Amino acid sequence: MIQNMKILACFFLVLATLPVPGQDMDALILDERHTGRHLVQKIQIDSVWSGHPVRFALLTHLDRQYIAYYNAQRVITVGQRFLVEDAFELNTLPRKERLEKSGTSTVVEWDSHNSLTLAIDKEGYLHLAGNMHVNGLTYFRSTKAYDITTIEQVIKMTGAQEDRCTYPRFLNTQDGQLVFHYRDGGSGNGNEIYNIYNCAGKSWSRLLDVPLTDGQGKMNAYASGPRWGSDGWYHLYWVWRDTPDCATNHDLSYMKSKDLKNWIDVNGRAITLPATIDQTPLIVDPIPPHGGIINLAAKLALDDDHNPIFVYHKYDEDGSLQLYMAHHHRAKWNISQLTNWDYRWEFSGRGSINSEFILHDFTKRADGYYLIRFWHIKYGERNLLLNQDLEPIGKILPPDNPRILEDVDGDFPGLLVQTSADTGQSLFSEKTYILKWETLNRNRDRPRPKPWPSPSTLYLLTFSE
C-alpha cells in the first residue's frame, strides 16, 4: 500500500511538470493549486461608502487588531478588537468638512488618493493619517495606549511644509522608532518629507534636514519604500514625473540605506541629499517621459548575492507594453525584455486611473526560483517563473483563490471587490487577515452622477494556511 502511494505521488509530481497545450515542451509547470488558504472566520463590521475605492487600514499588533475606514456617510471611523473576540468596538470621528484646500477633513469626497494609514508606537499609542491629496496634514493620535477609540486630531507634527500633503505612510524602523513619510507639494512639483516620533515628548521632528528626494520645482518622485530587505538595508526606488499627467513618468531610480539618514547608490557611493534627477548613478533605466512606465509599477527582489533585481513595464520599440528586468551585476545594470505582448496600454491624464496592467509582486521563492505575478487586461491573471539565472522557464498553477475574495454580493452594475491587507503582525503567524468591501471603480477623482450604489458591507476575513 505504501509503495503504491509512493508511485502515485511520483506520477502526480511528473504530471504537474508536463507542458500544457500551446506552451513550450520544455516549460516547467509547478502545480500548487491545492496549497492555498481557507476561510476560518468572517466578521461583519459596518456599512461603508461604495461610490469609489479608497484604501482602508488594517493593523494587527500581537493579540489586538485595529481598523480605519470611511463609513456609509463617508466619515472616518476606527475600530478595535482582541483577536479572540468576534466583533469590533467602533468609534466614528466628529464630522469635519474641508473648508479650504489647505484645511483638514474627516469626510472623504471623490478622491481615490485619500487612503488611510495606521501605526502603533513602541509605547502602544495609535497613530492615524489620511484623507489628503495636496491638502493640510490630517493626523490623529490616541490619548491612551492600545485604545484607538481615544484617538484625537493633532493639528500639526512639526508645523513646516504641512499645507500640501499626499501619500501619508508610517514606518516602524528595525530599532522600534516610528517614522512618518509624505509628499509635500503636487504631482510634478514635490518632494519627500520624513519625520521621526519622540515617545517621551510625544512630539515629531525631522528625520532629515532636507527632503529625501527633490524635484527642484520641475518634477516629483513617486517612491516605493523604504523597505527593509533580507540583506539588512532599507531599499528605496522611484520614478520621476514631470506633470500631473501620468504619462510623464520617467527614469526608474534606486538607492539604499542602513539608517534612513545616510544613503548610497547601487555601487556603494555616498549620496548627497536630496536625491535629484541630476544624480545619474541613481538611475536604473533611463526611460523617457511617455515611455510606458507608470508610478509604482516596479517591483524589487534580491539575488543570492543581495544584488537588486527590478521587474517593471515600459514600451518596446513597436510601442507595445512589455515586462522588463533590470539586474545589477558586475557593477552595471543589465536590462532584458521578458515578454512579447501585442498590446499597448495608453495611460495618460491626471487623477486616479483604472489599470489595464497590474504587477502584483516579484519574489524569490524558497525553492530558489523567482516568481512574477501580474494581471493583464488582455491576457488575464498570469505568472512567470524564472530560474536562478533569471531566465523564464515556466509558470506555477497558483493556489485556488477563496471565492469570497472574488464574489460580488451587491447587484448594482459595476461593483468590484476591494481588499486591504494587514500591515501589522499577530501572535498567530499561521493566520492572514484581510478587509473586504465593494465599490465602483475609480472615476479620476471626480464626482459621479446619481444614482449611486447603496453602502456595501465591510468584513474582516481570517484565513488559515
Summed up:
Helix content is 3%, strand content 44%.
Give the tags:
single chain, disordered N terminus, 44% strand, 465 residues, Tachylectin-2, Chain A, mainly beta, 3% helix, 5-stranded mixed beta sheet, 32 strands
Ordered list of secondary-structure elements with their pairings:
Layout: H1 2-16, E1 28-31, E2 38-48, E3 57-62, E4 64-70, E5 76-82, E6 89-92, E7 116-120, E8 126-130, E9 133-135, E10 139-142, E11 151-154, E12 165-172, E13 178-186, E14 189-198, E15 203-206, E16 220-228, E17 234-241, E18 249-257, E19 263-264, E20 283-285, E21 299-302, E22 308-315, E23 321-329, E24 332-337, E25 357-364, E26 370-376, E27 380-386, E28 392-397, E29 416-421, E30 425-426, E31 431-439, E32 456-464
Parallel strand pairs: 1-28, 3-30
Antiparallel strand pairs: 2-32, 3-4, 4-5, 5-6, 7-8, 8-10, 9-12, 10-11, 12-13, 13-14, 14-15, 16-17, 17-18, 18-19, 18-20, 21-22, 22-23, 23-24, 25-26, 26-27, 27-28, 29-31, 31-32
Tell me about this structure.
- This protein is mostly beta strands and 465 residues long.
- It has a domain at 38-218 and 402-445 and 452-464: Tachylectin-2, Chain A, CATH 2.115.10.
- It has one helix at residues 2-16; strands spanning 28-31, 38-48, 57-62, 64-70, 76-82, 89-92, 116-120, 126-130, 133-135, 139-142, 151-154, 165-172, 178-186, 189-198, 203-206, 220-228, 234-241, 249-257, 263-264, 283-285, 299-302, 308-315, 321-329, 332-337, 357-364, 370-376, 380-386, 392-397, 416-421, 425-426, 431-439, 456-464.
- It has a 5-stranded mixed sheet, with no helix packed on it.
- Strand 18 (249-257) and strand 19 (263-264) form a beta hairpin.
- The protein is globular and about 55 Å long.
- The two termini are 29 Å apart.
